[in-house]
Amino acid sequence: MKQGMKIAVASGKGGTGKTTVAAALALSLTEAYLPSIREAPSLLAQPPLFLDCDVEAPNAHLFLNPDIRQEAPAVLLIPEVDETKCTYCGLCAQVCQYHAIAVVGKHVMVFPQLCHACGSCTLNCPENAIHEEPHSIGQLFRGQAAGEIDFAQGLLNVGEPMAVPVITQLKRWTGNPQNRVMILDSPPGASCPVVSTMQGADYVLLVTEPTPFGLHDLRLAVQVVEALHIPLGVVINRDGIGDERVETFCREHGLPVLMRIPFRREFAEAIARGQNLLEAAPERVGDFQEMFAAILDQIGWVPS
Fold this sequence. Notes:
By secondary structure, this protein is an alpha/beta fold. The protein has helices at 18-28, 61-64, 91-95, 120-124, 164-174, 192-198, 212-228, 245-252, 265-272, 277-280, 285-299; strands at residues 5-10, 49-52, 67-81, 101-104, 107-110, 130-145, 149-156, 181-185, 203-208, 232-239, 257-262.
């Protein structure tokens, strides 16, 4: 029987309000906001764990204002070659799927930006001429947000090309939630960082908007989630600005629309001031709690 629950909040496109929804959902499950949900008491015995996995442009801290108390480096182990031992056989280059190492005549070239730190070159070197050195690619941060939420985020160093290792290390650093809810704020899009965030999730909440771009990218995001075989639901943000095609798509594909957030100027003004959605519209707390209960019902959650 599962001890924790992981909800990834994602979107096909940027700017749909994904982080707004993720932060509001986390806040709605804290004691400060109507601690009335008791469908899964063990899950709510502790405040949620919130991970901002959009490591290229993390912004959840703007809404949750965490007090950062821990920092740790995110590193990749990059091969270094001792050419006094190397026979230039080229086996390291042959086993590297990412072309991160090359043997050119009597010289070995390593390209850190291409290396995925898989260790194949080190393991396969017949002369034990390769060892690995840590290479900093980002930072991990952890603290308390809104007085209760256990908050963590990753930040990719400028110029580093791969976000996935930072996301992986962030998830590993914070561990698996025990008797609590983990909310993962995913990067936008449908690429490798999104897949890395979703992996291991019990549920994916897709935030979209009723526009042609919103529908186009929602289709892509749905394909990714379905390929991972994870249950999903949809939140339509800025409801009322477009047409009914997103609703039609969800209905035709059997996707539950769990919430509609209307397009209102006061919401935009509050977010621009750095307020979270529940500060701007405290009356919506119950909507987020009901959405959480609907997620539990949809996946048939059995409390421990």
